[in-house]
Amino acid sequence: AMEEGPSARIREGDCAVLKRDEVFKAVSVLRRRKIIFEKQWFYLDNAIGHIYGTTFEVTNGGNLQPKQEVEETSTETKEAGTDNRNIVDDGKSQKLTHDDIKALKDKGIKGQEIVQQLIENSTTFRDKTEFAQDKYIKKKKKKYEAVITIVKPSTRILSTMYYAREPGKINHLRYDTLAQMLTLGNIHAGNKMIVMETCAGLVLGAVMERMGGYGSIIQMYPGGGPVRAATSCFGFPKPFFDNLHEFPLSKVQSLLSGTFTTEILPADPEENALVEEESNGLSEEKQTSLQETEEEPATEAPMEINPTEEQDMMDINAEDVEFKGNKEKENKENVREKQMKQWERRKKLKEAAALLREKNADGLIVASKFHPTPLLLSLLEFVAPSRPFVVYCQYKEPLLECYTKLRERGGVINLKLSETWLRNYQVLPDRSHPKLTMSGGGGYLLSGITVILEKGKSDSSSSEALKMEEPSSKRCKLQDLPC
Amino acid sequence: MSFVEYGDTIKDGDTAIVFLGHESMFPVKVQHGTVTQTKYGVIRHSTDLIGKKYGSKVTCSKGGWVFILHPTPELWTMNLPHRTQILYSTDISIITMMLELKPGSIVCESGTGSGSLSHALIRTVAPTGHLYTVEFHQQRAEKAREEFREHGVEHLVTVTNQDVCKNGFGVSNIADAVFLDIPSPWEAIGHAKSALKAEGGRICSFSPCIEQVQRTCLAMEEYGFTEINTLEILLRVYNVRTISLQIPDLGKAAEDNSSSGFDSSNPSHQGSPCANLQQGTVQFKSGVPLREVVGHTGYLTFATKS
Lengths: 483, 306
Fold this sequence. Notes:
Chain B: It is found in: Nucleus. By secondary structure, chain A is an alpha/beta fold. Chain A has helices at about 100-105, 110-120, 130-145, 155-165, 175-185, 200-210, 230-235, 250-255, 270-280, 290-295, 305-320, 325-355, 370-380, 395-410, 460-470; strands at about 15-20, 25-30, 35, 40-45, 55-60, 65, 145-150, 190-195, 215-220, 245-250, 365, 390-395, 410-425, 435-440, 445-450.
């Protein structure tokens, strides 16, 4: 199931990510759709057909134009000072006023030229040290040379974006923590994975990317249906979704106890909307499902009402009085459609249940807002022995409890509770230093490996537990000094 | 079994991991008629291993027992024989994600070293990708080839014995990503650029010293790489422990039945979740940091070919 050519091109309908320095934003590539990004308004039309990774400037008309490669001003020895002892910051060193700068912008003067003007009109520029001059130029460029790069979505890009823009949606799962999960979980092509996440579908997308369309995934979901807002941003080809299944958490207990049935289906958000439409006739389109209200698109495009449903509704209203006969026929068709959909759903549910019942999944990934312990204890039942599992939690304490319960359960080894710290660096000649430390706030991971669970041997699991613990550093032996 | 595909049953010729207990394990080459010594006794491959399911508990001759695990690149990293300093899974994880590796990716790597990262890369790009790995030490290159063969992944990797700084990776314009872990990475940036595909390829250089990083960043800039970014990642592991802390004796107030706050000798505190029935202690669960932690492995510098 594979890939585009060596250099992928931006196409209409794609989900693309706009990038300016460290700021990202995901958007749908649609013609005549105004985009706001970093205080600029523009249309994406001109970007279509260009290669991903191209950098654009925004023209006065709100269109994108590929940025020309410009030669940096030559490195002649510039006039510079040695330190800032005589530089007074009185706010008056820049001779150009706000209005002057605005006038330049309105004339269509390019950002690079504006920066040059600012330098020439700064009374203190030539007294600054070379480093300070560098810093000044960088700062002005950042403000006036607004360039936007359009990048292809990937786990790297989307996980960074979500963490910066909407961390609440992903339970504050930081991108390096996600990276650990994918590797610790040995996610690779051909796996049969169980994924349980409430991270807008970002974790699911990351798993799908690492599986490359091979193997299968069963996504467990709470409520009415799985949220896959972020997943659609990845731009996976259709075949990737052929082996993506979903299964409701609310049916897990029945599946484990052998009482599973497809007779009562979890509420279908779409069905609810249709039913309401017909019973009320003139009712508005409503978003009834909790899942849908939680789901906020990461894209610029507004959540659009399904055009065909809207059309149906309008048709019904208009022809109501005159063509009652037709309306009845349409109702019958709608009912048939509903029945087909229900049948489809039942069929998919049975398939997912069958896959789970095999109890031979190659791994389990959990990253949700729920307490991890009940999820782990139940979902591990579906995992084969000698396979890794990874649980993410925003907080450490629930994982402490999870660890303890897993030890009591037995059938797991190599349990590890961890977090990662990330530090970015500024690397410049004679000016290298760390930038920020990211620690805490990125969440915690509990990982382990399954082994064959010997049920009904409680002393075996406690001796196992003893063996799995790190020996205490100070065991008080009777002959030693009392603790 | 292979390092890129799970199997259920232990077979002759497999590489399996013998797990003895906390952080104690070692790899074993499964072979008919062989025995393996452990501190719990002998494991006989023909009877104890071959045909058993991965994840099984095996009782050894002295009565103790072990678990037999299916190999993964992560377990391999923890157990492989070191010929050089290796990369561990924490760095490997962030490298994999930042280089945007996935099935079908073409990756170039130098130096191969002990093959720790190599196994992880092969696992990620399988079944349709490829790893071109360059190692200038002849024996190490040969040992790597041998291991890839034993682990069933030789079709996914090409080991070249040459100096990447002089002769590059042996391919041009096709790699999605390049990884460098060599003493003078700035000397290989040009070769990395020519190995990478025309547009959008990713590069990563790993160096323990900041001076190396500085020179490498300069070289990346000179060769027109963009999005140059240096970071380091550290792993913090916590041990889950039940801790008991003693309640200090603060004496009693003047009146015999006025108890201020925490008087755990008072039997009515028995219902409290934290208090312990034994004299004056409170128990709780804690994630305790390890005493010895890795402080630094190296700096990771990433960039994009534009």
